[in-house]
Amino acid sequence: MRILVTGGAGFIGSNFVRRTLATRDSVTPVVLDAFTYAAHPDNLRDERGAELCEVVRGDVRDAELVDRLVARVDAVVHFAAESHNDNSLLDADPFIGTNITGTVTVARACTRHGVRLHHVSTDEVYGDLALDDPARFTPETPYRPSSPYSASKAAADHFVRAWERSHGLAATISNCSNNYGPRQHPEKLIPRQICGLIDGRRPRVYGDGANVRDWIHVDDHNDAVWAVLDRGEPGRTYLIGAEGERANVDVVGDLLECFGRDRGDFDRVTDRPGHDRRYAIDPASTRALGWAPRHPDLRAGLAETVAWYRAHEDWWRPAAAAAEARYRRRERTLG
Ligand code: NAD
Ligand code: DAU
Prior knowledge:
Blueprint: E1 2-6, H1 11-23, E2 28-33, E3 54-57, H2 63-70, E4 75-78, H3 85-90, H4 93-113, E5 116-122, H5 148-167, E6 171-176, E7 179-180, H6 189-198, E8 204-206, E9 212-214, E10 216-217, H7 218-231, E11 237-240, E12 245-247, H8 248-258, E13 267-269, H9 284-287, H10 298-311, H11 313-334
Parallel strand pairs: 1-2, 1-4, 2-3, 4-5, 5-6, 6-11, 7-10, 8-13
Antiparallel strand pairs: 9-12
Helix pairs in contact: 1-7, 2-4, 4-5, 6-8, 6-10, 8-10
Bound molecules: nicotinamide-adenine-dinucleotide (NAD) and 2'deoxy-thymidine-5'-diphospho-alpha-D-glucose.
InterPro entries: dTDP_Gluc_deHydtase (IPR005888), NAD(P)-bd_dom (IPR016040), NAD(P)-bd_dom_sf (IPR036291)
Protein name: dTDP-glucose 4,6-dehydratase
Enzyme class: lyase
């Protein structure tokens, strides 16, 4: 089986490639990635610097290139996206281009060649829940995205469904909650605070920090993607989550403890505009495929993630410096 992995040089896509190579002898991944600031070439290299699989540098909006690559494979797993909410608030254009036009380009090529598409989406398409609401997101929850990022992912999901219904595309969609683990870009909450703590800086929490995210280890997300590829039904949506709801202040407190610091030793900074309050996934649709998370203990997963960042400073230092420069600009803009 040959599989095209778009966005395979990013955090979750490269983990998908690594897990696939480690667990599936019969699958040959080919990566298409534009190598934006979010990618890291080492994500797809072994310890000696050799590439783990065929890697094509290119854009998911390049219809001719996408068509040529899709013609060579049996399935596409579409991870490529602009993925950071804060960036989408500063400039939505790359999100509209990559996340919407890029997804339509991939859907068109898959339809033309009769190739199965798995589209990787996010729980953010459902908007947010109140902290005291007992509800969780299900595949029936109406779409209500809040940020330009989540609106672009919601639009992409709708286009995949439109291509499925109107043009006969065989597609599945998964909407996953917040991932953590090795090789996550240091602009995101958990690696940002870990890299800062390694350098002796205090974590920075937006607003009151009571916002809840539903954390899942990236290995568990990708095992669930494989469950959908193996046993999911085209036309259906699968929600992926590990029942890992935790408030931001508690996640930051856990990280501080990993560094032997007081749980309250962080700074509160100006809140993210439109900041979603709480995400929570009901994972029944994916559990029904026989999938279950193997990393249910978030605190243990965070400690392992801290150890990875401590051991890979060369990997994150340049990206963290660039991300912190962007955050300084953000703080000047927001006050
Ligand atoms: P990431 O930002 O780490 O990686 C994105 C990758 O896409 C990068 O390698 C980048 O170079 C590539 N890319 C961007 N624009 C491209 C383009 N025009 N053409 C080709 N490649 C391009 O993102 P991630 O966190 O690994 O997320 C991967 C996918 O999973 C995204 O679709 C995201 O919406 C979704 N998702 C992420 C999370 C999360 O917690 N990170 C949760 C649920 C869903
Ligand atoms: O829910 C899935 C989504 O999770 C994915 O679709 C996105 O691609 C991914 O980036 C993530 O979105 P979030 O906006 O939830 O992740 P982020 O790591 O940016 O922030 C997590 C929470 O932490 C959020 O409530 C904002 C807050 N935060 C973030 C940063 C970077 C802080 O309090 N301080 C920070 O410095």
